[in-house]
Amino acid sequence: MDLVQSPSEVEKSKPAVSLSGEGVNHQQHDHGTRPRPKSRARAFEETLVKYNLEVRGIQRVEEQEKVQIGWLAYLQVFGLWLSVNLAPNNITLGMLGPAIFELSFRDASLCAVFGAIMGSVPVAWIATWGPLSGLRSMVFSRYAMGWWPSKLIVVLNIVLMLGYSVLVCIIGGQILSAVSPNGSMSVVVGIIVVAVITWLITIFGISIIHYYERFAFLPQLIVNSILFGVAAKHFDLTTPSAGDVATIRGNRLSFLSLCLSAAITYATLAGDYFVYWSTGASRPLIFLATLASLSLSFTFALIPGIALASGIATYQPYSDAWNGSQGGSGSGALLVAGFEPLGRFGEFCAVIVALGGIANTIPPTYSSGIDFQTLGRQFECIPRVFWNTLGVIIYTICALAGRNSLAVIFTNLLALMGYWVAIWVAILVEECLFFRHGSQGYNWAVWDTRKKLPLGIAAITAFLVGWVGAILCMAQVWYIGPIARLVGSHGADMGNYIGFSWAALVYPPLRWWEMRKFGR
């Protein structure tokens, strides 16, 4: 069966439902929640259903509501992540290797690829829990973090989702501004264009998102290949990394950590897009399709960015583009400069790249709407469409305000967000392996019953201890931890690894005590 069913197909094949959740009685399957009063919000939801828009929020998708899938669905998992990840923000991320960390093409490429693969592994693992649990990733988190501590994770994730969207909007705005005649379009207009198109797609819900992401990677794949071919003669593949041995090692580790952070942050939404799949879906195939797609797409996006930035020091037009454009770092202008030999067609290709950011902004925009509902029952009563709209407004305003500080936002936001996600992943993995003994140890029916979920004492303590380790080992523009400072002249960012390790060491004994003391 295809990954996405139309409403008419669903009616013929009930009890399954479409990915958009039409025809689902949310109250019937909302374990432990109070019935929603008839309100304007509820009336608005009914209007959305009438027009086949998704209204389901954080409610668990029961087995009788799910769809059966065939082999084609696993190919579409591959296509989904390929579309999401072949985006201009990842090309820009690659540029930071030579431009900010002063790494050679070889060093930056190796760090980028291996960092992305390492970060993609937990994403692929969490994606497999969507069909099994029928729960969104932030709701699934309650089974380890507990009811109240999980709300802290949700707040951090909302910041993460909206922060990523800020970056993509700025980069898209830079590119659209750079290809306009004499820069006549400001970055402001480009930011608004990307944000509005993203909003229009996300309000329709998960069915339309799957349709869009199924094909969005094709034009990006083509224009990225063209970019590599047309700009290759200006790549600097021989200049070594700058600095002494210790500084180079520190910069390698910091850039690897940055690329790991870019990948691992998908973990917080990875399961959201497969909750309508039946529990019989193959977890190994979902894992492999996700891991392969993320690894390949990161490689195909990061390497062109690294190659373009390697030419900044040796090719004057690239240097001028990086240093002299609207928006600070000039990543968008540098990308346009790579297409410049193709003239008007090159400008067209650059526009395609800019619009490719929409595919990357859609998942965080959609999932942030779900996350808002996870904050409490009052939030849950407000339709997802409202929260998606609010999220778009917030990150559009932030993108407009921060459009001249892209490089600073990029390096600081990615690293800081990667720290907490790595710590969170450590807690989830250990809860599954040591205390749930695999998937059979979860009672999915209590997802919304506070008194049957863990208290979260062990989780929040381990989370905070992990943060202490991350702070001691972080290396950012505004702060270098005492341990990170020991490596090279600029420090080495080890926050991801130390934060993960410290949380992983502390959580098991605390969780054992918590279960013995409180029985849950």
Structure, described:
With 520 residues, the chain is mainly α. The chain has a single domain (7-28, 36-518), classed as Orthogonal Bundle (Hydantoin permease). The chain has 22 helices and no strands. The protein has helices spanning 7-12, 40-50, 71-85, 88-99, 105-127, 129-133, 137-140, 142-145, 147-179, 187-202, 206-215, 217-231, 245-264, 283-310, 316-324, 331-339, 344-373, 377-380, 384-401, 406-435, 457-473, 495-518. Helix 9 runs antiparallel to helix 20. It is globular, with a radius of gyration of 23 Å. Residues 1-37 have low confidence and may be disordered. Residues 1-40 are annotated as: Disordered.
Q: What's the tally of helices?
A: 22
Secondary structure category: mainly alpha
What is the tally of beta strands?
A: 0
Number of domains: 1
On the 0-100 scale, what is the average pLDDT?
86
The CATH architecture can be named as Orthogonal Bundle
CATH superfamily: Hydantoin permease
Strand percentage lies at under 5%
Q: List the secondary-structure elements in sequence, H or E.
A: HHHHHHHHHHHHHHHHHHHHHH
Helix content: 55-70%
Shape: globular
Q: How large, in whole angstroms, is the Cα Rg?
A: 23 Å
The biggest sheet, with number of strands, parallel, antiparallel or mixed sense and barrel status, is: none
| Low-pLDDT ranges | 1-37
Determine the N-to-C terminus distance. 39 Å
| CATH C-level class | Mainly Alpha
The name CATH uses for the topology is: Hydantoin permease
Map the helices and strands:
Blueprint: H1 7-12, H2 40-50, H3 71-85, H4 88-99, H5 105-127, H6 129-133, H7 137-140, H8 142-145, H9 147-179, H10 187-202, H11 206-215, H12 217-231, H13 245-264, H14 283-310, H15 316-324, H16 331-339, H17 344-373, H18 377-380, H19 384-401, H20 406-435, H21 457-473, H22 495-518
